[in-house]
Amino acid sequence: MLTVILVVVGVILLTIALVKLVDKFIPSKLKPVLMIALWVLIGFLGYQTFMSIYNPILFNQEKEKRYAKVIKSLEDIRDAQLAHRTVTGKFAGNWDNLVKFIDTAQFTLTQRRDSSVVDEELTRRYGGVETFKDIVIIDTLGFRSVKDSLFKGSDKYKSMMNVPVGEEGAKFKLQAGSWNKIVLIFLFLKPQ
Questions:
Q1: Is residue 157 part of a domain?
Q2: What's the angle, vertex CA 112, arms to CA 111 and CA 117, rounded to 5?
Q3: Among 52, 37, 77, residue whose Cα is nearest residue 162
Q4: Where are the transmembrane segments (predicted)?
Q5: For the chain, which terminus, N or C, has the lower number of CB atoms within 10 Å?
Q6: So what's the pLDDT on residue 192?
Q7: How does residue 189 score in pLDDT terms, banded at 50, 70 and 90?
Q8: Residue 109: beta bridge partners?
Q9: For residue 2, is pLDDT > 90?
């Protein structure tokens, strides 16, 4: 804080000294030229000050646009991978398999209903008192293409592996694997 105050006082003193020097040593015929030069310098420095503040704003706006494009591509990849896992039980390990899956695979459309039916065994066991058990009925209604479900007839899934911004030809890296869950149990015994 003290440094800032000293700098401001120094700039004020330097300005006063420059005004005195200009008033004493510059002839009155050159003063309009000097005024124009100083106004140009003020304009240039004002522009530089404005741009030093505005450039980060422009950068952030461009960054947000690029992030939105990349996030959209990553969401498409996520949706495709989740569809692959839903149908096949695992994630796709490479782009060719994922694109081929989207082209050819179909979702099974099902309907799930809860129902109650008389439980014959419990009814007999309780002496004829009707007892019910709940069951779930799953009906297969049909099939629908994964491509139509996710991409609505578009073929943008064929290029979803390309990074939409930055270096030309850059691709997202796709890896899939499985985790084997290992449970470790540590027994801590209190020493006697």
A1: yes
A2: 130
A3: 77
A4: 33-59
A5: C
A6: 44
A7: very low
A8: 142
A9: no
Max Cα distance, the chain (Å)? 124
Can you give the residue range of the structural domain that contains 171? 90-189
Residue among 24, 44, 22 nearest 33 (CA)? 22
pLDDT tens, residue by residue, 82-102: 999 888 888 888 899 899 999
Task: Quote the number of domains for the chain.
Answer: 1
DSSP-derived secondary structure for 57-108:
HHHHHHHHHHHHHHHHHHHHHHHHHHHHHHHHSS--SSHHHHHHHHHH-EEE
Answer yes or no: is 55 within a domain.
no
Whole-number Å distance between alpha carbons of 107 and 99: 15
Confidence of residue 179 (pLDDT cuts 50, 70, 90): low
Within 8 A by CB and 6+ apart from 99, the residues are 157, 158
Residues 6+ apart with CB under 8 A from 111: 138, 139, 141
CB 162 within 8 A of CB 144: no
Secondary structure of residue 120 in the 3-state scheme: helix
Report which residue type is found at 137. Answer: I
As a whole number of angstroms, the distance between CA 20 and CA 101 comes to 82
Q: Categorize the per-residue pLDDT at 50 as very low, low, confident or very high, splitting at 50, 70 and 90.
A: very high
pLDDT at 63: 94
Instruction: Return d(Cα 162, Cα 70) in angstroms, integer.
Output: 10
Q: Is residue 11 part of a domain?
A: no
